[in-house]
Amino acid sequence: MRLYAGKISPIANDMVEALVANGDIEVSADLVHEVVLDVESVLREYIRAEREITDRARDQISRDGLEFNQVNKIKNKLAEDRGFGIGDRAVEYLTRQVIEALFHSRHVEEVFAEDHTLRRTMRDVLNRHLNVDDDLDQEVRKRIKNLQEGTSTWEVEYHKVMSDLRRLKGLDA
Residue 118 above 70 pLDDT? Predict the structure, then answer.
């Protein structure tokens, strides 16, 4: 799962819309945009923190002379030390952060739903938007099917095509 900057506004809008429509939160019509901005700030902070963890992992790899294929292992360790959710834990982490923001937002008049209900609604929205990685991966693999997976040529072409598709779809990280 990866959160792209280009998806922040649609996710935040859909999330707030779903919470209001379900009656989970009460927001005055003129303040809905402010609540969306509150949710966007949580999502933007997540991207910033994830980048920071990734940069630290890369720095540690170069400093310690480790193999680059260990970046995910180091990232997971750094994230765990900070209590930060990445990968499979990202959705749960994000929902907790958004719930916290909703309770502390001066723009939300009332939160009616219990945490588990809020989580379920937000998880559905996040999963719908964040499954874009799987779709992109399948599209990239179709485009480079003539190359043998695992070769350096395949790796280079995979990243090039993925980057091009992300840019075309407005998903630049």
Answer: yes
* Residues 166 and 112 occupy one common structural domain: no
Q: Tell me the pLDDT tens digit for each residue of 137-168.
A: 888 889 988 988 777 888 888 889 988 988 88
What is the C-alpha separation between 93 and 80, in angstroms, rounded? Answer: 11
Q: Which two tokens stand for residue 30?
A: 């003129």
End-to-end, the C-alpha distance of the chain in Å comes to 12
Give the start-end residues of each E strand in the chain: 25-26, 110-111
Q: Report how far residue 37's alpha carbon sits from residue 43's, in angstroms, rounded to the nearest whole number.
A: 10
How many folded domains does the chain comprise?
2
Mark whether 151 and 124 lie in a shared domain.
no
* DSSP-assigned letter for residue 172: -
pTM above 0.85, yes or no: no
Integer Cα distance of 112 and 109 in angstroms: 10
Q: Distance of CA 127 to CAs 19, 66, 99, Å? A: 15, 34, 17
DSSP 148: P
Q: Residue 143: CB partners within 8 Å, gap ≥ 6? A: 161
Query: Phi, psi at residue 170, to the nearest 5°?
Result: 70, 35
